[in-house]
Amino acid sequence: MRFSFSLTEPQTNNEAEYEALLAGLEIAIDVIIQHLQIFGDSQLVINQVFYIYKIRKVKLAHYHRQALELLKQIPNVEIARVPQGQNAKADCLAKLAKEMANINEERPIFIGVYTRRVLEPSLL
């Protein structure tokens, strides 16, 4: 399954990576996935999930905690890092979104399949 999301508020790259992870986990839980393979290109996020890297920013700690709670709900999960240049499917979605941005036109073209709110402020 492939999904594309647009965030409703500006985020740092690491926050956006966590948002993508949370969105994917929520979808997997909703459709009752029992075996899940996660491929990500964020070395920071993946290593934080595996407790290899410490979490130094408070905001990322909230994302991390939420991700761990969601991961507990899926029986079998594998997480692998894919270098940015080798993640062709994600790169295609990102390029498509960039091309369709129409910065110079008054009426932008939206391709978003889903809109996802960022982690609720009450959780931060």
Describe the structure.
This protein is α/β, with parallel strands linked by helices. It contains four helices and four strands, in the order E-H-E-H-H-E-H-E. The chain has helices spanning 13-30, 43-49, 58-71, 88-99, and strands spanning 5-7, 35-40, 76-81, 114-116. Helix 1 (13-30) runs parallel beside helix 3. The chain is globular and about 40 Å long.
List keywords for this structure.
two-stranded parallel ribbon; 124 residues; alpha/beta; 41% helix; single chain
Task: Give a quick precis of the structure.
The chain has 124 residues and is an alpha/beta fold. It is 41% helix and 15% strand. This is RNase H type-1 domain-containing protein.
Quote the beta fraction. Answer: 5-15%
Note poorly predicted spans. Answer: none
Q: Treating each run of at least 4 consecutive H or I residues as one helix, how many helices?
A: 4
Mean pLDDT score: 80
DSSP strand tally = 4
- Residue share in helix: 40-55%
Rg over alpha carbons: 15 Å
Q: How does the helix and strand content classify structurally?
A: alpha/beta
The geometry reads as globular
Q: Give the H and E element order.
A: EHEHHEHE
Largest beta-sheet details: 2 strands, parallel
Oligomer: single chain
- The rounded distance between the terminal residues' Cα atoms is 30 Å
Strand order of the largest sheet: 1-4
Strands, helices and their partners?
Elements: E1 5-7, H1 13-30, E2 35-40, H2 43-49, H3 58-71, E3 76-81, H4 88-99, E4 114-116
Helix pairs in contact: 1-3
